[in-house]
Amino acid sequence: MPIGVEPLCRFTPYPGAPRKVSIAGVPIKMEKTPGSVRSPAPLLGQHTREILQQMLNYNDFEIDALIAQGAIGDMTIPEIA
Asked: Beta-carbon neighbour count of residue 32 at 10 Å?
């Protein structure tokens, strides 16, 4: 099975960053399962509300109370300057 070497790091846009950031790429490329980096890592807290609602059945009021108590952060994607 032929194996190729891929660049270890790739540069990609990232929310809130003034320029592209370096992220780890796929270090090897295999013929039948090449793999790829499709998106950057999520921001801290980006999926918190979704997880609490869908997996733990929290409603918006309960989540807002946790935010007000400081138990979880209120994730806002920053504007790109």
From this structure: 6
> What b/e string do you get for 42-80 counting C-beta neighbours within 10 Å, with b at 16 or more?
eeeeeebbeebeeeeebeeeebeebbeeeeeeeeeeeee
pLDDT at 68 over 80: yes
**Residues 51, 49: Cα–Cα separation, whole Å:** 6
Cβ pair 24, 11 in contact under 8 A: no
pLDDT-derived band at 78 (thresholds 50, 70, 90) equals low
Q: DSSP labels for 24-52?
A: E--SEEESS------SPPPPTTTTHHHHH
pLDDT value of residue 81: 47
